[in-house]
């Protein structure tokens, strides 16, 4: 009987996680291993703080390279549907900005497309590396 209860609890928790993912597709932690970047977002509550840069306050999210303090701040966003959102980003110096879209292809794959404005650049071995206009991110 105990075994049956444990199995039921596990199944219900897995189903709860799946339901949360489909109900809130733009509350996520997304990664791209190729460029060693991640996108931490919550376009609903817009209450994300950037570690080490709390002076920005609560935001819709940010894009950051792992093991580096440089980031692109999402200053505003608009959820257009359960599959697409528009975002405005600035670098943490405030010197560059751009518009982008984030599209959910399925429960785990998202596409970030850079639009008007600057190109996202990240630090790489002491130099600035431009990211491609279209980047695939995986939900973690």
Quick structural overview:
The protein is an alpha+beta fold and 140 residues long. The protein has one helix and ten strands; from the N terminus they run αββββββββββ.
Counting helices, strands and paired strands, the structural category is alpha+beta
Question: Helix segment count?
Answer: 1
Provide the helix percentage.
Answer: 10-25%
Terminal CA distance: 34 Å
Gross geometry: globular
Q: What can you tell me about this protein's structure?
A:
With 140 residues, this protein is α+β, with helices and mostly antiparallel strands. The chain is 16% helix and 46% strand. The strands form two sheets. The chain has an eight-stranded antiparallel β-barrel with strand order 1-2-3-4-5-6-7-10. Strands 8-9 form a two-stranded antiparallel sheet. The longest helix has 22 residues. About 13% of the residues have low confidence.
């Amino acid at each position: 009987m105990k075994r049956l209860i444990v199995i039921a609890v596990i199944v219900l928790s897995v189903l709860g996680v799946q339901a949360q993912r489909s109900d809130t597709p733009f509350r996520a932690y997304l990664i791209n291993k190729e460029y060693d970047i991640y996108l931490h977002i919550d376009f609903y509550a817009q209450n994300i703080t950037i570690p080490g840069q709390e002076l920005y306050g609560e935001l819709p999210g940010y894009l950051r390279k792992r093991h580096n303090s440089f980031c692109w701040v999402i200053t505003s966003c608009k959820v257009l549907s359960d599959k697409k959102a528009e975002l405005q980003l600035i670098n943490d110096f405030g010197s560059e900005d751009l518009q982008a879209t984030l599209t959910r292809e399925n429960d785990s794959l998202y596409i970030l497309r850079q639009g008007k404005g600057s190109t996202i650049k990240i630090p790489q071995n002491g130099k600035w590396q431009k990211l491609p206009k279209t980047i695939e991110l995986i939900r973690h």
